[in-house]
Amino acid sequence: VNRTGEMGFYSCLVKSDGNGGIQEIYRVRLPGNPILGEGKPENQNHAMIFSRGEFVQTIDMNQEGYFEEALKMRNALQEFAKRDGPMPTTILGLREHIFTGSVSSLANYMALQETSFVTLGQRVLTKPLCIRLHYGHPDVFDKLFFITRGGISKSSKGINLSEDIFAGYNNAIRGGQVAFKEYLQVGKGRDVGMSQIYQFEAKLSQGAGEQSLSRDVYRLCQRLDFSRLLSYYFGGIGHYFSNVLTVITIYVVVYLMAILALYDLEKIGDRLITPMGTIQMLLGGLGLLHTIPLFSTLGVERGWWASLQELIQVFATGGPLHFMFHIQTKANYMTQTILVGGAKYRPTGRGFVTQHTPMDELYRFFASSHLYLGVEMGAGLIIMGIYSEAKQYFGRTWSLWLASLSFIASPFWFNPLTFDWNMVTSDYLKWISWMRGKAGGASRSWSMWWSEETSFYSKMPLTSKGWFIIKAVLYLTVAEGIARSDLARADNTLNKPLVGVSFVVGSIVIFFVLWYLLSMVEHLMPYPVRRTIGILIGIGLMVSISTVFIEDSNFIRYGLAAYYGIGAMCQVGLLFGSKFVKNFYFIHDLVCGHIIFIPLLVLAILQIPHHIQTWLLYHNALSSDVVVSNILRYARKSQESGGTTAPNEDLVEQISELRKLVQKQEQMIEKLGSGNVSATLGKQNPSTDAIASLIKAPSQDKMNIETQPGAYNVMGGKMGTKTMSASNLDVWGEMALGDSAVPQGGYQSMQTYQTTTVPRTSDFEFSSPSAMPPR
Q1: Distance of alpha carbon 533 from the chain centroid
Q2: Of 343, 526, 605, 687, which residue is least crowded by CB atoms under 10 Å?
Q3: Phi, psi (5° rounding) for residue 59?
Q4: pLDDT per position as a tens digit, 214-267
Q5: Which of 37-41, 282-286, 316-320, 739-743 has the lowest mean pLDDT?
């Protein structure tokens, strides 16, 4: 607070004083509150003034630098002194090494996707296309160039959601050039869970939608030549537009084929059309050619047989379903951002999220973007199959069925323990409880979730609402076609039903009214009475609906037509803020949820799919990966206790249960897998061994720390003479600690040490020299 009583803001550079305290180096007075936009780009731009030197490298929290790669940094900085063209090099792109690929199949897909884009894509975008931008860290920037041209990020909320890419736009517009070198790489951890990957793709897609509306892209595209403009479209927001067009094409083809079959228009004159299903299957197989660049890269880096095995493994574990699923993720959030707006930063975490996700959470995540579309496409293909008279149904629809299946099944196939009977029954009860919830936020109530999920419809401009009105017209067209068709048509003039249809329909209406009244007064009733009345009303509804379909089969056709007709009415009502449509959407969600749950229950009864899923999705890692987050949580609690207190009995009991679960899963995989799998499980894994070391029973022995006689004093404490790098090479402490670790007499006055050899598990040995060379 200053003299006038106003709040003053400063940024301070601090460091440790060596005694556990904080020492301030200097501070910078700020004109006001610095938190205006997103925190990450604001911090990046502001931290520039505290950095030294002429270049700055940006590193994310999920990245790590290897010591051996750091030795190459001096060579990499010389790239800025070179001029490959008329403009100076201002951004140096580096290769990334994904080290989380062995956690699960999903993590492996993300590692391969990064290899495809970060290595292959950016290599081509740099040369010969000359349109590589800045796509994220760990790029190195010319600090003097960027600090005078707006910084290395833009931080306005909303429009600058993908803050990194705007540094590339700024660089291209203001005359900079980007280089990309692959002799230096930085480690990176990618997302390993389905929900994490979903949020990551959603953030990128919303960012691409905001980019397409930004002035930076407009200015860049006004100044690029035609060839580089096409290259920018290929390597930038055009990828997301292509996904949007792909999903729209699938949707239009499904409804076009269904409407042609419904209205008997699958012919030219009196001659039926001749589908070319075989050719369509061959053309679909040409999509495998997209794997050739990745196959070639993996072949050069790992060997051709290992590359082939990798691709076969991707297809066997459901890789195509995963990538098709995220085509819809990108398309959904790209269109939503352009039509509605509302893009926001989504923190994904980058943690080891490989535990089972409950069904209600998956439904909240994926219903609006994927599950509804998958069920709708499946219903359209079934209707087309019922009414179509043209042949080669499978040849014409196999790719559409694959897309529908990927939208519906992918979240559950890639969810650990999905087909375990106890998990399925528990998830079903949780989902029913969530559907019945009335309060407590979106995570506890379907009603609250639906209100949040559909709040943007009524706020859309009229031009954006036009797309959804077209969708409602499609529903009405299908409803009219079903109602006019001969599906399950019956003549009841001769065969009178035993129970009057009007009586049964009236009973159904009465039961629905009773259900509504029960929901209004159920909080006043005791639980046994409320439960009994609810069961009786449910039984009455099921019996009445079954009776009406048995007595008069025409109601099958009327019911389907009404379902699409009500869907059209609800779509229009949603656009104009009608609350009445909420009840119909509740019934629709009940139908969609049971369409998903019934196959899950059947597969859980068989038990075999559960073992197959576990073996396929987690054969790269130890079976303990499913519970690795719990192990890390226990390790964190143990570390927080600091070893000063007695061990927590609850934690010890939890870890014993985790050990039993790990042993059980290892035994299961050994039984299912071949000898190679057993051999893999028997090998030592440094990362999992490190975790295992954290969860050992607490030792009663006291730990004695002895300093080496040849150690020297740094910051008032004793330091050893050697450190270990990421590749287990011995590194002299002076190199790792800098000049501050060297005595005043220089290197030549240091004590001479004996040559030591560190034992290795392999044949490779490394000996450190007896003394460092003179400086």
Answers
A1: 43
A2: 526
A3: -125, 130
A4: 999 999 999 999 999 999 998 889 999 999 999 999 999 999 999 999 998 888
A5: 739-743
Residues 6+ apart with CB under 8 A from 299: 307
Contact criterion met (CB below 8 Å) for 448 and 440: yes
> How far apart, in whole angstroms, are the C-alpha atoms of residue 113 and residue 204?
14
Q: What is the pLDDT averaged over residues 649-653?
A: 61
Residue 584 in this model has a pLDDT that exceeds 60? yes
Q: How far apart are CA 479 and CA 557, in angstroms?
A: 10
CA distance linking residue 493 with residue 498, whole number of Å: 13
Angle, helices 581-606/372-387, rounded to nearest 10 degrees = 80
- The residue to which tokens 């160039």 are assigned: 145
What residues contact 582, with CB distance under 8 A and at least 6 apart?
447, 450
CA angle 703/636/351 to nearest 5° reads: 135
Contact 339, 467 (CB under 8 A): yes
In sequence order, what are the beta bridge partners of 654?
A: none
* Residue 232: CA count within 13 A, CB half-sphere: 22
CB of 624 closer than 8 Å to CB of 665: yes
CB atoms near residue 174 (< 10 Å): 14
Placement of tokens 């069925």 in the chain: 401
Q: Which two tokens stand for residue 67?
A: 């010591």
Helices (H), 552-580: 554-575
DSSP letters spanning 14-66: EEE-SSS-EEEEEEEEESS---SS-HHHHHHHHHGGG--SSEEE---TTEE--
pLDDT, tens digit, 9 for 90 and up, residues 128-166: 888 999 988 789 999 999 999 988 988 888 888 888 899
Closest CA to 235 of 110, 88, 112, 123: 123
Report how far residue 652's alpha carbon sits from residue 648's, in angstroms, rounded to the nearest whole number: 6
Task: Provide the terminal-to-terminal Cα distance of the chain, rounded to the nearest Å.
Answer: 50
Give the CA distances from residue 619 to residues 106, 667, 690, in Å, rounded to whole numbers and listed in that order: 12, 13, 20
Q: Are 216 and 170 in contact (CB under 8 A)?
A: yes
